[in-house]
Amino acid sequence: MLLHRKSVELLAPAGTWDAMTAGIAAGADAVYLGGKHFNMRLHEGDFNFDDERLKAAVDYAHAHNVELYVTLNNLISNEELPALREYLAYLNEIRPDAILVQDFAVLELVHEMGITVPLHTSVMMNTHNEHAIEKLKEYGITRIVVGREMTLSELALFRTRTGIEVEYFMHGDMCISESGQCIHSGVLFGQSGNRGRCMKICRWPFALIDETTGEVLDANSPGPYKLALKDMCMYRSIPALIQAGVYSFKIEGRMRSPEFIARLVSTYRKAIDAYIADPNGYTTDEEGWRTLYDNRVRDYTTTFAFGQPTAVDIGMTGEREPRFFSQAVEEAGFADEVLRAERPIEKENAPSRHLSVRVGTVDAARAAVDAGADTVYVGGEAFRPNRPWKLTDYEDLVRYAAGRARVVVNTPRTTMRRECGELEQFFAALNDIGVDGIMVGNLGTLKLARTLTKLPVQADHSFNIFNHLAITFLKENGLTMATASYELSFQQLRQIVENAVLPVEAVIHGAYESMICDYNFPAMSLPNYSDLAAPELLDRLYAFRDEAGGVHSIRIDQYGRNHLYFAKDLCLYPYLEKFNGLGSYRIEAQDYTADVTAEIVRIYRAALDRLAAGSDGYRTEDFERLTEISPRPLGIGTYRFRQSRNSI
Hints:
Layout: E1 9-13, H1 17-25, E2 30-33, H2 51-63, E3 67-72, H3 81-94, E4 98-101, H4 104-113, E5 119-121, H5 130-137, E6 141-145, H6 152-162, E7 165-172, H7 184-189, E8 206-210, E9 231-233, H8 238-243, E10 248-251, H9 258-277, H10 286-294, E11 300-301, H11 337-341, E12 355-358, H12 362-371, E13 375-379, H13 391-401, E14 406-410, H14 417-430, E15 437-440, H15 443-452, E16 457-459, H16 468-476, E17 479-483, H17 490-499, E18 504-510, E19 513-517, H18 521-525, E20 542-546, E21 551-556, E22 562-565, E23 569-571, E24 584-588, H19 594-612, H20 620-629, E25 634-635
Helix pairs in contact: 1-2, 1-9, 3-4, 4-16, 5-15, 9-10, 12-13, 12-19, 14-15
Protein name: U32 family peptidase
InterPro entries: Peptidase_U32, RNA/ubiquinone_mod_enzymes
């Protein structure tokens, strides 16, 4: 690869006019910034650009031969769609060089409105496999901000196979969760991290405990901040980034001062130019490194660039944490004044209301069928000590459920190169097993399922459906059902269901995940944790306990990913009469035993049947029984809020 000045783009953040001009003066090739609405940095009132200032910023950047990208990269609810249309029309008029997007509704409106500004995917779209890229190219995407969990070796292969232009976060604040897959702030505070209002639960102190006994396992650890990832810094690895095929070197920091931005940009500018001028003779400029290190906010890490992070990549002491946005609070129980006051969804119900159940074992699947489930979701991630489903397990369950329930195969939410390779073989085998459908968690798996099978395909909650236009996008791509986001309030869910072109499934009961992380938290805290020397420790049940006493189960799947659960399970049993017109009522029973699954399914089956017959679905004794058998306390999650706080 022959390098020249335009081989690499140095991309600077800007939250204010002064920060933008400072980044440009320091040598940025491009800047990215957001308007006053619809972006991922909405906490600070003095930051971001109003419409007039946005146009001036585009003009200023272009006058200095610098490109300018506008972040329209948060999830958008139904009530915000009219304002989104106006904003897109305005952006098309002022002509930034690209728009960064997360929500599928933007892709729909860009096509409908004839918007001609180039589109880049935000990191929040969690793009991590080549099949997703091929799908996004159909919608005019010209650049991908890749998922932060991708190593440089994976990225190089990814870039070669797709030919897409790659943007990579190489300096600044990083999320511990996979992008777009953390809902903790949205459910707990009504301020969604996917909508630009994260309250940074990951910066709370936690104790690692044995979930079964409550024993604290990490009393001698360096500190309690188990999820507090250090800041990304790839300054010492610039050659590796360039040779991996990264085009745009992205600096995080839209809330930083002009002086801070100028220092970062000028330091990286000098190093990048030095490497391009003489790659073979390049060495790290230690004076530049000292400039960065002495002015760091947190300590530094390279996160996943060269492999899976370890404990040294976590700021466990908390001593360099610049700001704590929130502190641990107890999750909502049945604080339901808002929900009880809401009018029911106005959509006609099917004669028999459809009950689906996601299970983790063959025994739980059989129990769900026997108890009256219409659909069982099987497979996908298997949480230890459970083992992944085998082809023979699916075959046996199809025979067992015949004539009584549909069997739909679930797939992992995250499908990197390994998982995609396995899914190709798995989907080929499914054609002969006789299952009734596939549930997918990302665009790449969607493309694979639609290409390799003739089975109906539906979308899981990881698609982050927040408006009815996103469901239109899914229908255009051949899906048969969409699952609503956990972060929606009831009012927002109602607007979607009443306007959607596909049936909408919503989870009404069960254990649910606050985030999914490609980190191994027990391994980071326990010195004797080893799959070689102590494999028995891998099947132990671990949890984090927060300072409010909430116990967050940690479930580890067959790929090593850690799934963190909320301290309370969702329970909407007292409010079922409001949830009219759902395509399916789902129970998340993946973390339940077969006996508990059976009892919960029977209770909900009876309640839904009573509602379908025109009577009251609620029974006090059944609600009390749900509370009694639940492995965790129960609550109503985000339905305590009138809305997930919006962007306008």
